[in-house]
Design a protein that fits this description.
Elements (H helix, E strand, L loop, with lengths): L13 H24 L2 E9 L2 E5 L2 E5 L3 E8 L5 E4 L9 E6 L1 E3 L5 E4 L4 E7 L4 E9 L2 E13 L4
Parallel strand pairs: 1-4, 3-11
Antiparallel strand pairs: 1-2, 4-9, 5-8, 5-10, 6-9, 7-8, 10-11
Length: about 150
Amino acid sequence: MNSGSGCRPVIGSPVSHLGAILTAALLLTGAARAAETMPTVDLTMTVENGVPTCAPAELRLPADTDVSIKVQNRSTSQFVLTAPQIFENKNVLHHDGDVVHVASNEGYTVKQNGKGEIRVRTIGAGQYPFGCTSVNDKSKPFRGTLTLTPAAR
């Protein structure tokens, strides 16, 4: 029997709404902290003398780790960023901003003058090629090196 002296919030009441808001805030705070501790690399895309370029030319990240790739396209052309296996659906954690996952599962399109973030799970240690290709001239892709080092334990 309930004497009515309990403090159980009624669904739809201000107390239950407050609880939902606090729960959501805690979850978002935890996600934000996880993103802050995630290894990050910045990649800038430009076109110089008609040739697509990505800087830096070598990306260094830990292997088998959740990482953040922050991209900025400083050109009036869309770029496609590719790397073997990295952008497969099973490795993609999240993307945000002016980036679109390409249908082939091999990369991301970065809109002209756009910027965004791509969070992925890296693959095993080793050196892999990565590419930046302007959609206006696919015959001149930029080739860089993605170095994945053994993660610290």
